[in-house]
Amino acid sequence: MALKALLLLSLLVISAGLALAKQDPELHQCKHQCKHQRQFDEQQKEECERSCEEYIREKKERERGQHERRRGEGNSREEEEEETQREENPYVFEDKHFEDRVRTEEGRVQVLEKFTKRSKLLRGIENYRVAILEANPHTFIAPAHFDAELVLFVAMGRATITMVREEKRESFNVEHGDIVRVPAGTPVYMINRDENEKLCIVKILQPVSVPGHFEAFHGAGGEDPESFYRAFSWEVLEAALKVRRDQLEKIFGEQRKGSIVKASRQQIRAMSQHEEGPPRIWPFGGESSGGPVNLFHKHPSQSNQFGRLYEAHPDDHKQLQDLDLMVSFANITKGAMSGPYYNSRATKICVVIEGEGFFEMACPHLSSSGSYQKVSGRLRRGVVFVAPAGHPVAVIASQNNNLQVLCFEVNAHGNFRFPLAGKGNIVNEFEREAKELAFNLPSREVERIFKNQEQEFFLPGPTKQQEERGRAFE
Amino acid sequence: MALKALLLLSLLVISAGLALAKQDPELHQCKHQCKHQRQFDEQQKEECERSCEEYIREKKERERGQHERRRGEGNSREEEEEETQREENPYVFEDKHFEDRVRTEEGRVQVLEKFTKRSKLLRGIENYRVAILEANPHTFIAPAHFDAELVLFVAMGRATITMVREEKRESFNVEHGDIVRVPAGTPVYMINRDENEKLCIVKILQPVSVPGHFEAFHGAGGEDPESFYRAFSWEVLEAALKVRRDQLEKIFGEQRKGSIVKASRQQIRAMSQHEEGPPRIWPFGGESSGGPVNLFHKHPSQSNQFGRLYEAHPDDHKQLQDLDLMVSFANITKGAMSGPYYNSRATKICVVIEGEGFFEMACPHLSSSGSYQKVSGRLRRGVVFVAPAGHPVAVIASQNNNLQVLCFEVNAHGNFRFPLAGKGNIVNEFEREAKELAFNLPSREVERIFKNQEQEFFLPGPTKQQEERGRAFE
Amino acid sequence: MALKALLLLSLLVISAGLALAKQDPELHQCKHQCKHQRQFDEQQKEECERSCEEYIREKKERERGQHERRRGEGNSREEEEEETQREENPYVFEDKHFEDRVRTEEGRVQVLEKFTKRSKLLRGIENYRVAILEANPHTFIAPAHFDAELVLFVAMGRATITMVREEKRESFNVEHGDIVRVPAGTPVYMINRDENEKLCIVKILQPVSVPGHFEAFHGAGGEDPESFYRAFSWEVLEAALKVRRDQLEKIFGEQRKGSIVKASRQQIRAMSQHEEGPPRIWPFGGESSGGPVNLFHKHPSQSNQFGRLYEAHPDDHKQLQDLDLMVSFANITKGAMSGPYYNSRATKICVVIEGEGFFEMACPHLSSSGSYQKVSGRLRRGVVFVAPAGHPVAVIASQNNNLQVLCFEVNAHGNFRFPLAGKGNIVNEFEREAKELAFNLPSREVERIFKNQEQEFFLPGPTKQQEERGRAFE
Question: Which is the CATH superfamily of the domain at B299-472?
Fold first, then answer.
C-alpha cells in the first residue's frame, strides 16, 4: 500500500539525517588536525574546527553542482528520492530547523532559522522569518511588540487578538482562516478563547530594525517574561512613572510563569466580549479598516474535485499591500496534486498545516549550468518549504489525507502563475513551428502530450503508481 | 553635586577606553603566536594578527550575549553604568569614531564611521552616513557634489548655500534650525556669512553609488582641493574645454589652501545678497519648491515645561519624502527627560547639539534570548547615538543645561511613537484582565503605577536621585 | 597615425594581462608555503592557496589607494594609460569576463560576470546582469523563462520575439534599435528572421529569485536544452500530463541540438507573420501595451555634428518604469567625444556596439581620500564599462569609426546629467565670487577657460594630439 511507500521514504530521510550526524570522514580528519596543532591555543582550535565545517559544507555544495544526475535511466523513484534527500536541500525545513523562543507549561513559540542559514540561495527572502505559536485552551499570550512587520494566520482554534493602536485599542475575535496584520511595533496580546481546542497561529515576520532578525519586546511582565522596563535604571523608572522603587520592584517582580499562562473562565469571557474593532462583515468593516480577513470566506480562485485554492492578494487587501505579500491556502484532495506550475515573480514560503505528501521542484541554481537539480521533500504537519520565483513545482497529497498548505507569497505584485500541465499550460501556447523546433518532433506529437490533461491547477495525483510501488514492498 | 556624578561617569568611560587600548590578554597571546609562526611571512603574520582581533571581537560579542546581567539586586547605578560602558556598545559614537575628511586652517569636515563597522546590528541603517561641517566666520566652503543624497541641518551660525540645479542656480540664506535638501549629484557651495559666529552644519547622507560609502567630487579647485578635472588626460581636457595645456595647468594649479578658505567682507556681502531661490516665507515658497524649511518656525509637536519637540515629517515636506526621513529636534529642559518610549518603525540617528546628559535603552538583540541588555551612554556635544525601531529609550538632561538633540529618523512613513510612561502609555491601554494576567497582580495595583505620571513625552527627570548620588561623591 | 597609437595601447593591455597571468612573486611565495605545510591535507592546501590570492588582491587594492599618482608632470599619455591598465580596473569588462551559457553551432549566449566579482565598489548594481545573445541567420532560439526581469535591445539584425502572457501569446517583429521588456518568468522564444544577417541582442537582467544570479528555465526541450520537466519524477509527470512514460521519454528525449537551432525558410516565414501583438506604430499600440519601443524612431535628445544621443526614459515608457531603468544609445562621430559630464543619480552600464575609442573617468573611491583615481579603458565592440553616479566621465571615439555605445542607466528617476565642459557646464553656473574663491584666480580667467567651448555634450575630440602622438610611433 501507499502507506508503506511513505514509511519507507521516512526511513530514508531519517537515515540520511543520521549520516549527516555521524559526520563526514573528511570533516573528521580536518577537525582532528585542528585539535593537534601544537601552536594553536584552545580558541584557535575552536576557530579552526569551525573553518573545517565551513570548508566541507562549501565543498559539498560545489560537488553537488558538478554531480552528474543519474535521473531517468533505470533508477527507481526510491533511489532518486534517497539521493536527493542525502544531499542537503536548502528548500525544506523540519522540526530541527525550528528553535523554541517561548516555552511554558501552557504553550510555546517556535521560530524557524534564518532562510539563509544553510544556503545563500535564499538571500532573496533573507528578511522574512516564520514562527509558529501554539497555546492550550483558555490561555493568555502576554502583551509584546516586535521590531518586525507581522502577518498572522489562524491555523487552528479561536482567539481574541488585541492591538494597541495610536491611543486606542482594537480587539478581534478570530478563528480558523483569519489573516491579521500587526504593524511593526504594535503592542499585541491574545487569548485562546476556546475551552477545548488548542490555538495554532502561523506568523510571517519582516524585520524592520536588524535585517533578518526580530525580537519580542515585553513591556508588561516581571521576571518571566522579563519586562523591558527592567533594563532602565531604577532612578529613571522612578522619575518616569512617578512612583517609589519598592512599588516598581513589586510590579516588575510578580510575573514568573512565562509569556503564555492559564486564564480563568471569567477572564476569557470578559476579554472575548471586548471586540472593539469595526464590524467584521467582510468585505466591509474589518477589511477596509485593516482588520482581519477570513481566507475561507472568499471565493476560491481554483476549485475542482482535486482541490481548492484560496488567495488573499495585496492588490485587494490593504493590510498586505505595503508588504507586497499574498497569503494563499491550498487544500489538496487526498491522492491529488497541485501543479506542476511556477510563479513568475513571487517566492512561496509554505507551511504544511495538515496531512501528508511530498513536493517536487526543479532548481537550476543547485545544479551545474544548463541542467536542473531535482529537489523534493516529504511533507507533514509543520514542515516548511520554499519555492522560489521561476522554479517549477508540484505538491502531491498522500492517499490517506487531504494535504493543507498555507503559503506566504513574497513579491506578489505583478505575479502570475504559469501552469506546466493541464489547461492553459505554457507549451500549448506555443505556435506550431515553435513546438516542432523546441521538441524536434512533429507538432502533432507534442500536442498529443500537452493537450491530454484537461483539469486546471489541481490534478489527479500519481495514484496508481504509488499503489503499485506500495505493493512491491509488502 | 550632579556635576561630580557626571565627572565620575566620564572617568569611567575613559578608563573603559584605556582598558580596550591596553589590550585583552587573549588578544595579546593570539597575536604573539602569529608573530612566532616560522612558516608565515610578514604578510601572513599581519593577516594572522588581524584574524586575532576579529576573533576576540566576536568572542566578546558572544560572551556579552550569554552574560548574566546582575541588574537590580544590590548593584548601584554606577556599577551598572561601568559594566555597560566596559562592554562595547555599538549604539554610541564619540569623537574617536569620527574621521577628518577635510581639515584646513578655516574649518573641517568630520565623517562618522560606517554604522556597521563595530556591529552588524546596525545593518538596517548601513546606507546612512553622518558628517559634521564646521567653518570659521567669513569663510567659503568650496563647490562639490556628492554621490549621495544629502540633508543638511544648520546647527549653529548663518550660511548662504548655493546649489546648481538644471541650468540655473539657487541660493538660500539659512540660519539655525534650517533643513536643506541637496539632491544627489547637485553641485553645492556655501559661505559662513557671519562675521563672528562659527558655522556648524550636521549632514545625513544616503549614498547612491557605493552602498555605505560616499565621496565629495570637487570640480573647481586645484591641488587642494584637488579638482577631478585633473583625473582626465591633458589631451581630453584640451579638447573638451578648447584651451591650451598651459592655461589648464594654471587654472588647476592655483588653489592650494584646501576646500574651506577665508573670504573677504566684499565677497561675503555679494554672495549673501544673491539669494535667488523662491521666497522663503514658510509654508509657501521655499517649502513647496524644495527649498529650506526652518524646524523652529513650526509648531512644536510636544511642548511643556520639561521640553519641546519640533518635527519635520516626510509626509509634510516633499524634500524629505523620497528619503522617507523625518528630522526632529528635542530641547529637553535641564533636569528633565524625554521618554521612555519607542518608535514603531523608524530608527533614530541622533546628534547631541548642546548640553549634557545620558540615555538608557533596552536591547534584546545584544542579549541572550528573552532578556534585555541595558544600553546607556553619556551625552555631550557631538556624541551620536542610535535608537533602533522597537527599542525602548529615554534621554535624560543634566541638571546644568538643557540637552538639545537633533535626530534623523529613517523609515519614518507610518511610524508611531508609543509612550511607555506618562499620558497614553501602552500599559494603560490594556484591558483590566490583560493587566492582571500580564503582571500577575490585581489590575488596581497596575493602574496605580501606570496612571500616576500625567505628563506627556517630556517628564521631570530623576533629579533627586542624581543630587543625592552627586553628594555621595563629594 | 592614430591607428598605430591604438595598436600600441592594445599591446600594453595585453602585456598587462600577461603580467597578471605570470603571477606576482609574493603570491607565488605564499602559495608555495601553502603547498609545503606538512600539517595540511590537500583540501587545506587548496583553501590556503585561495587565501593567498584573496590576500594579494586585497593588498593590491590597499596599495592602489595609497599610490601617489604621478599624473600630469611629464608623463606621456601612454605611460599613464599603461599605469592605469596595469592596475586592476573594476569598471571595465572584456571578453575574458564573459562566460558562455549557451554555445551551439548556430549561436551563443554570453553572460558577464557579476559586477561585484572583482570589487565591492559595484555593490550598488550587484543585482543587475548583462548578457549578449548572438544567433546565425534563420535560427530558432528555444523557449525559456528566466527568474529575472529582462530588457532586450536589438543591436543587430531582425528578429521575431514571442512571449506567452497570461493565457495569450504575443509576437513582435523587431529590428535594430528595438527595446523589448520581458517580465520575469515570461516564457519567451525568438527567431532570427533574416536570411543573411546575424542577430545580436544585448540583455540586462534583474534577478528576482537569487540576488545577483539568474537562470534560464527551458520547459520545451529534451536532452539539450534539458527540459525542467525532466527534474520531476516519471510518476508525477505521468499523472500531470495524463500520458504514459514511454511517451514522455520520447518527447523529452528528441531535442539534442541545443537551444539555438537552424529553422527552415517555411518555419521562419510562418513565425514572422504571426505578429499578434497590438499595432507597432509608436507611440501608440506597442508602446502603451508594453510592446517594443524603437529607440531610433525617437527624437534624439542631443544632436550635433559630433554625435547623436537617443534616450528611452522610464518616465515616458511604462515598460521601463518599475525597473527605474533608462536605455540610451550614443553614436559618437569619429574623432569626437561625449562629455566630460556626470550623472547625478544614475549609474551607467554601457556596452560598446560598434567602433573603437576609449573612456576616461575620475574615481575617488579607488583612491586615497581627497584625490581622484584616473580610470580609463580601451573601447571596442563587446567591451562593457560602468560609470557610477557622480563620477565624471568622457567617452572618446577613434579617428577611424563612429563609436556606438548602448547604455542601461540604473536608478534613472530624478537623474540629471551635469556637463563639465561646453554649454551649461557647472563651473559657468557659479557666481563670480565663487569662481574666484574656488580657483584662487580672478573670475575673468576662470571664465576664459570655461566659456570657450560652445558645443553641448558631444564635442570635438582630442584629434590633433592623437595624430601627433600617432606619428611619434611610426
Answer: Jelly Rolls (2.60.120.10)
